[in-house]
Design brief:
Layout (H helix, E strand, L loop, with lengths): L2 H24 L1 H8 L2 H22 L2 H11 L3 H25 L1 H7 L6 H26 L3 H32 L4 H7 L7 H17 L1 H5 L7 H35 L6 H14 L1 H21 L5 H25 L1 H5 L11 H21 L1 H5 L4 H21 L3 E3 L5 E3 L2 H26 L6 H19 L5 H19 L13
Antiparallel strand pairs: 1-2
Helix pairs in contact: 1-8, 1-14, 3-7, 3-12, 3-13, 4-5, 4-7, 4-12, 4-14, 5-7, 6-7, 7-10, 8-10, 12-13, 12-19, 12-20, 13-17, 14-15, 14-17, 15-17, 15-21, 15-22, 17-20, 19-20, 21-22
């Protein structure tokens, strides 16, 4: 099977769970933004930012190490069992610590009356960390269908419980329906946004139960020597993961502390979190691609034409990202209507556009990053991520409180607009530096001309449409023209037969 077709088919199956799931979760955003104020939604956004950090810490790069060592070691089962036992042990210790210090932690982050949030999130993080290695095993064995099934069940349970707690239960109470006694036994209005976390926790529990066969059938042997080798390989990835998560989430944490007291920081975080959701389509594709690409890249390593395959993957990846960018920015008014009226902020379009462009470069960076994984130079991944994290933190510290003149002539802080700019600067810088390092350590002859052509044309169309007031039909025509250009450039050329000599 053609390697690109194989990657595409695997991406499609992984994408089924990710695309369907993310789109359904995306539909929860209108629910949250209509039932909860920006301030309440800001609590959700902030706490999930903390969660993202701890998930990285608790998985400590062992997932990627699993893929690498599964190719090297004689026994894949031993690699899996060692990884599983390691994650089970560390997750148990983490959950125990979080439960014991839940009151202190809740007070430290500003939610002294919500220590239950800390316990719920501890369990979510621990369960997700343990499940990650079983998901990795399914990916390594090319069991994309089972992978997708488990994730879809998780997603449907999560969404179903969100609808139950946020819509159904209040409706039953308000209208005094027959199921009132049952609802009163499981629902309390005082929990509020906490039901978002409870739904997530229950879904994570079900996921663990569904992955139990993979765990039970493990050899349950812990190879200390193998574990040490895996940790040496994974430790730079942990640093890279933490630095990478800093790039993704630190802005939502810093906004709380860098905005002036006269500005409701929770409300601003809620707005920013909602705008971030509007770039979900691009993030979705990148994450879906990564599920399939990581084991695919490792499997292609020993093939004679591997670098040609990597180059082709990059080109088509850029094409998809550019199309997503144009669709979301061109039809922004359509996407913004998914959010509640309290979230229709004038800063929305520019922030969403900047975040889309930032994630465009992040996607390219993920493609480029294969060079240090294939060459076992994972330390460079840590260096690159730390480099990006420094840029992110410094620019957020500068830009969030920086004053500018709004349309009303009032000086206000840049706030989350500055955070979006910092995100773009971070991912762009990391992409450029990774590209330069890749040329030295693992050179790949990418199709630079076509990649630059598509990127330049994408930006040109964006600028034209942004500074004009064309109708939606004209805007659609521009996007259609872009697709035609791609088709004409990528269309296979028919061989030209030389004219035979007559004399």
């Amino acid at each position: 099977m053609n390697p690109l077709k194989k990657l595409a088919s695997q991406t499609a199956i992984y994408g089924l769970s990710s695309v369907v799931g993310r789109l359904l979760n995306y539909l929860l955003v209108p629910l949250y933004t209509r039932y909860f104020s920006p301030e309440q939604y800001g609590v959700v956004t902030e706490l999930y930012a903390y969660v993202a950090f701890f998930v990285i810490i608790l998985t400590y790069g062992i997932e990627t190490a699993f893929f690498g060592f599964s190719q090297k070691e004689k026994s894949n089962r031993l690699v899996y069992s060692t990884s599983l036992i390691s994650l089970l042990s560390t997750s148990f210790i983490f959950v125990a610590i979080m439960f014991f210090f839940s009151e202190n932690i809740a007070s430290t982050i500003g939610y002294p009356s919500n220590q239950d949030y800390i316990k719920w999130f501890a369990l979510i993080i621990g369960l997700d960390a343990v499940s990650s290695i079983s998901f990795a095993k399914l990916r390594a064995l090319n069991k994309a269908t089972r992978f997708a099934l488990v994730r879809l069940v998780n997603i449907f349970i999560n969404i179903g419980l969100n609808l139950f707690f946020i819509i159904y239960c209040p409706y039953v109470i308000e209208n005094d329906l027959q199921s009132l006694n049952f609802v009163n036994s499981v629902y309390s209005e005082s929990v509020g946004v906490g039901y978002i976390f409870i739904a997530n926790l229950i879904a994570s529990c079900v996921t663990i139960l569904m992955l139990a066969p993979e765990m039970i059938n493990s050899v349950w042997i812990f190879d200390k020597k193998l574990w040490k080798k895996m940790m040496i390989y994974a430790s730079p990835l942990l640093i890279a993961g933490l630095a990478g998560m800093t790039n993704e989430t630190i802005d939502r944490i810093l906004l709380k502390y860098l905005l002036p007291e006269n500005i409701n920081s929770s409300s601003e975080i809620g707005l920013y979190g909602a705008f971030y959701k509007l770039s979900i389509i691009m993030i979705l594709f990148i994450q879906t691609f990564r599920f399939a690409a990581e084991p695919f890249f490792f499997s292609q390593e020993r093939q004679a034409n591997s670098k040609k395959v990597y180059a082709d993957v990059m080109k088509y990846f850029v094409i998809v990202l550019s199309v997503i960018f144009l669709i979301v920015t061109t039809f922004y008014e359509f996407f913004i209507n998914f959010l509640g009226s309290d979230y229709h902020d004038e800063r929305g379009f520019i922030v969403v556009s900047i975040l889309l462009l930032a994630n465009f470069f992040l996607g390219i960076y993920y493609n480029l990053s294969i060079w240090y994984k294939l060459t076992d130079k994972t330390i460079f991944g840590a260096y690159l991520a730390i480099f990006g994290a420094i840029i992110t933190i410094v620019l957020n510290l500068i830009l969030i409180p920086m004053l500018y003149m709004n349309d009303a002539g009032i000086k206000i802080p840049m706030g989350f607009v500055g955070s979006a700019i910092a995100t773009l600067a971070c991912y762009f810088s990391m992409t450029i530096l990774s590209f330069l390092l890749a040329k030295k350590h693992y050179p790949i002859d990418y199709d630079y001309k076509r990649i630059l052509l598509y990127f330049s044309l994408m930006l040109s169309i964006f600028i034209i449409l942004h500074f004009t007031s064309f109708t939606i039909i004209i805007n659609s025509v521009f996007v259609f023209i872009y697709l035609i250009v791609i088709y004409l450039v990528e269309k296979p050329k028919k061989p030209i037969n030389a004219t035979p000599e007559l004399f």
